[in-house]
């Protein structure tokens, strides 16, 4: 079975996507590059677009693409309670006909909140994936703690493994892969290199070999999302190059 490759619209840069006419305008590039799907970013939708998600879903279907939906929201707030926006976000993901909703973890401190989370997920019928972000909440220890709690309760929640974000929070990507790999259902592919006092995302073949080696330590049968900068005169050709690379690596 061919490995599925998703393209994150943010890979083209907010300014370019906005100038092109929004995320729907990028769909032809992604489809012509041979990708399987697109990751729609909520933060890049205008209020008008947000109200017309079924229209965007239809466009995605016309181009023969799958969709996933990413919202820049934590699952848990600073006081440990569930984010009250989650039911609305799950509903938006449904309108988009997305395979899953992706959020960050946030402050998971109250295990008793998981019962209510299970109810929300059952009511929505939508899959949820939780990503390691570039905050302390996305460090390996809290991600492990949350994953163990989900496994113990058999919750329908899996992880998005962002390959580069571990460096932002001071953790080892390889150690994270060793400990979390069985729970990973989606991979955000990017390499990272030092930049001033932080890091910047780069394509995996532009960094040292550790990044391609890291891919081999993660599940081979889960979708891979391109989340590194895609730039050039011919964006279709640039995208196709990395779609092909990630299919075979």
Describe the structure.
The protein is of the alpha/beta class and 249 residues long. The protein has helices at 14-20, 27-32, 47-50, 53-62, 86-95, 113-124, 140-153, 165-168, 173-180, 210-216, 235-248; strands spanning 5-8, 37-41, 66-76, 100-106, 127-131, 157-162, 184-189, 191-195, 198-202, 224-226. Strands 1-2-3-4-5-6-7-10 form an eight-stranded parallel beta barrel, surrounded by four helices. A hairpin with a 2-residue loop joins strand 8 and strand 9. The radius of gyration is 17 Å and the shape is globular. The two termini are 14 Å apart.
What secondary-structure arrangement, pairings included, does this model have?
Blueprint: E1 5-8, H1 14-20, H2 27-32, E2 37-41, H3 47-50, H4 53-62, E3 66-76, H5 86-95, E4 100-106, H6 113-124, E5 127-131, H7 140-153, E6 157-162, H8 165-168, H9 173-180, E7 184-189, E8 191-195, E9 198-202, H10 210-216, E10 224-226, H11 235-248
Parallel strand pairs: 1-2, 1-10, 2-3, 3-4, 4-5, 5-6, 6-7, 7-10
Antiparallel strand pairs: 8-9
């Amino acid at each position: 079975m061919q490995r599925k490759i998703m393209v994150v619209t943010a890979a083209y840069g907010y300014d370019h996507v906005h100038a092109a006419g929004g995320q729907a305008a990028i769909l032809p590039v992604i489809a012509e590059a041979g990708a399987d799907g697109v990751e729609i970013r909520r933060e890049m939708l205008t209020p008008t677009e947000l109200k017309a998600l079924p229209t965007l879903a239809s466009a995605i279907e016309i181009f023969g693409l799958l969709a996933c939906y990413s919202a820049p929201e934590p699952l848990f707030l600073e006081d440990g309670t569930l984010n009250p926006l989650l039911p609305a976000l799950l509903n938006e993901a449904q309108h988009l006909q997305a395979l899953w909703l992706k959020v960050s973890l946030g402050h998971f401190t109250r295990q008793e909140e998981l019962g209510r989370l299970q109810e929300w997920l059952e009511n929505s019928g939508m899959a949820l994936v939780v990503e390691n972000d570039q905050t302390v909440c996305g460090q390996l220890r809290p991600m492990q703690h949350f994953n163990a709690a989900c496994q113990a309760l058999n919750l329908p929640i899996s992880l998005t493994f962002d390959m580069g974000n571990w460096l932002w929070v001071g953790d080892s990507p390889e150690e994270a892969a060793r400990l979390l790999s069985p729970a990973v259902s989606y991979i955000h592919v990017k390499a990272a290199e030092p930049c001033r006092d932080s890091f910047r995302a780069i394509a995996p073949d532009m960094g040292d070999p550790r990044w391609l080696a890291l891919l081999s330590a993660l599940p081979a049968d889960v979708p891979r999302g391109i989340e590194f900068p895609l730039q050039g005169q011919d964006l279709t050709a640039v995208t196709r190059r990395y779609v092909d690379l990630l299919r075979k690596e």
